[in-house]
Amino acid sequence: MMVQYDYVHPRSPLSITLSVWNALFLREALSRLSAGRIAWLWLLADPIMQISIMMFMFIVIRMRVVNGMSTEAWLIIGMVFYLMFKRAATQVQNALGANRALFTYRQVKPVDTLLVRAGLEGFITTLIAIIFGIGGTFFGVALIPDDPLTVLMVFFGMWLMGLGFGLITSVAVQLIPKMGTILGIVSTVLHLSSGVILPVSNVPQPYRDWLMINPLLHGTEAARMGVSSYYHAITGVDVSYIYKCAIVAIFFGLALQRRFEIKLTSL
Amino acid sequence: MIIVDDIYKRYQTSHGPGKWVLQGISFVIPPKVSVGLVGRNGAGKSTLLRLIGGIDQPTKGHIERRCRVSWPMGYGGGLQGSMTGRQNAKFVCRIHGHEDDIEDRLAFIEDYAEIGSAFDEPIKTYSSGMKSRLQFGLSLAFDFDVYISDEATAAGDAAFRQKATTAFRNLMNRSSLIMVSHSESTLKDFCTAGIWLDGGNVHWFNDINDALNAYKESRSK
User: Fold this and answer.
1) How far apart are the two ends of chain A, measured CA to CA in Å?
2) DSSP for B124-152?
3) What is the per-residue pLDDT across B146-157, written as a single tens digit (0 to 9) for each?
4) Chain A residues within 8 angstroms (CB to CB) of chain B
């Protein structure tokens, strides 16, 4: 004879997911800001050093203006917007490995760790961007945007691209051996072809059109246009292209998460 | 009550699908019956616990959990090495929806684990016995109907095992246990019924002693 049970689901699936996101967010924020004594300082020091080194090199070759924008502003905008993509992408890519122990709890799904990391990274990089904006303006760099709405849209688009890229690569690095090495090379190519440190306007046709396939290049150029209406961006820059690429990447990334969900938890 | 209905499980290996670990097993664990799993290494005991715990899915068939089931405890699983014991405990409280009374539960876990100031040190500095203590305290802080233990008490010292035994004696009227252990005395202490896993099949015994005897007999052959 079967015993009657009086078990009811105490929590809805949505409330479980929300409490998992809350717990993961606090855990990630803590480890991001307190790994080592001055982890929070490195979040800021890293882009500052990169920008300083590039600025020094531009000074050495006596390039004061890039396409109608001061070199400082050109570099800061490109770096900060690319940073939004880069940080979101890397953090999401490594989320599964860093949270493996937590998959012991069936409430925690692999995709939760990815989405929460993307959210946290977006939050941190937004703060960094604001600090750069205020700091740069204080030192006389023209960073007050002429078209704030475009700037915000591009910034959000770069975050979406980072999320989409990370969703795909997180599965790839877990399932394909040596994928991390290959992605390191891909990341260098992306960095050089996104108009962050090398002005793409110098690249002759038809190669420039090839570079235009890279949605991140559209992002950095559209961001500079949004900050200064006097900036001569390369022709063909399209903000909606970033969003189209991001939506395709996120859809494909989520599909991969769904397809390999069991495999990712039991690795 | 946990209903395991005709489940098959095999893992993917680097050269195609591996051999079947579990082949069409079915059984029902009634409420408040503690079960010990026995079988030789590689018989699929831990796999079965992971499936019951819901952190892995069967290749075929399905498992129904009509009660609150804990995560599988054991071997330091579920503890994030870079976080402190307290941070891990907070995380587990939050995912189980206990944001409101988190302080009470933390106090309980800290008190139960008895690892002193190590509670605020990263898990990677813990010994395996300390991890066991923390895991055990963690799982007792929530009202599960069924606790899953994969050698969870194996690393503990005598005092801790005594404490764990007492804790489970007190829980017996509202909770039960599904456990894997290679220690006969532990199984006899905690369990009433037994499951013997052999060659991908299961044999259910209403008495754990019968399960242990059947397993012993198969070994002497």
Assistant:
1) 40
2) GG--HHHHHHHHHHHHHTS--SEEEEEST
3) 888 887 666 677
4) 2-3, 5, 7, 10-11, 15-16, 19-20, 22-24, 26-27, 30-31, 35, 99, 101-108, 262-263, 265-266
